[in-house]
């Protein structure tokens, strides 16, 4: 039997925030901006680490490695965001 209005538990601000997060189905512009920033940061970080190694191998390795690393970082981010969204919806 449903509770009367006066008997319903009031949501805390934290509970309201969590409910709003789980109701989202499409990423906001802010989320997309954040996603791009994170991908670019980690791509640059990993490429910087590998540039030293690339100097000892082939000339074109650095450009190819950057592309592969960026695709890998994007894949990891997409998987992580998908898992995060699934966890919030569960």
Give a short synopsis of this structure.
It contains 3 helices and no strands.
Fold blueprint:
Blueprint: H1 13-23, H2 29-54, H3 61-89
Helix pairs in contact: 2-3
> What separation lies between the terminal Cα atoms?
25 Å
* Mean of residue pLDDT values: 69
* Rg, alpha carbons: 21 Å
Strand coverage percent: under 5%
Q: What low-confidence regions span 5 or more consecutive residues with pLDDT below 50?
A: none
The general outline is elongated
Q: What structural class do you assign from the helix and strand content?
A: mainly alpha
Summarize the biggest pleated sheet: none
Number of strands: 0
Number of domains: 1
Pick out its properties:
90 residues, mainly alpha, 73% helix, elongated
Describe this entry's structure for a reader.
There is one protein chain. By secondary structure, this protein is mainly alpha-helical. The chain has one domain. It has 3 helices and no strands. The chain starts with 12 loop residues before the first helix and ends with a helix. The mean pLDDT is 69.
